[in-house]
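#lab-general

N.A. 3:47 PM
ok so I finally got the sequence cleaned up, no stray characters, all 292 residues accounted for. can someone with queue access submit it? mine expired

B.Y. 3:52 PM
send it over

N.A. 3:53 PM
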Amino acid sequence: MADHHQASSVRGVTITRMEYHGWRESFLLTNGIVEAVVVPSISRIMQFRMAGERGVFWENRALDGVSAHSGNEWRNFGGDKAWPAPQEDWEPITGRAWPPPPTFDSASSEASVYSGGLLLTSPVDRYYGVQVYRKITLRPGLPVMDITTRYCKVAGPPVHLAVWVVTQLCNPQRIYALLPESHSVGPGYTQIHGEFPADVQKDGRLLSLRRDATHNLKIAMEGNSLVWMNEEYVLSIDAYSAHGAENKCTTAIYTNMDPLQYVELESMGQVDKVAVGDTLELSNSYTLARSS
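B.Y. 4:20 PM
back already:
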């Protein structure tokens, strides 16, 4: 699975170049407690796990070693990635409603190791005129990965845009969202796609559901915190926008039907009009713990 070489260690975090499932020039970050696997050739953080254990990110193993491309067929690799929001603007801006804009979803990034972390830098997207930077770090001595995603507008006319981070995870026992205090009454979510959640529960500010094996569905909420859990692990994702009132975000949960048994936990900053020289930023913290 992995051929390790060229390790460097800074502030309790070791970064090693490796081959991962057929992708050369991948990277393993570890602080001895948790590990992250980054694959620049497909611009994804492909795995997050307790050191030496199995990961919680979903990986489409049918696509091991397959390169990114800019065709019209979407390659659903899994892992953690960043897309431009809102999705309804993809077709007016790029000429196609699906798959996602190529530079954000299907282009390779340059990787550079810096003090304590790894930086991914995308090409400039020819439709949005945006360059994507993703800074991946592990906190020394803690089971926490931090990813800061920055969109820099460097060319072209102004566009309406927000940072949108999508994390694909293995089949859970249950998924949770912490709602703002203002949503303690009412359903607390908006139906975005598919069937009504058959197993949605709400207890005060805590909303939860299970993956639906027979239908794809998606709901969206206001808030900053999402939690995934299975019989072994609990992963919490906390998102903070550097742009927008009180750092508020929109979160979403997508569940995929069989046979691909995965879910997506999504966070998105506030949509704004950006011109050349403007930047947008969203910071996500991923905390991993054992479920018992």
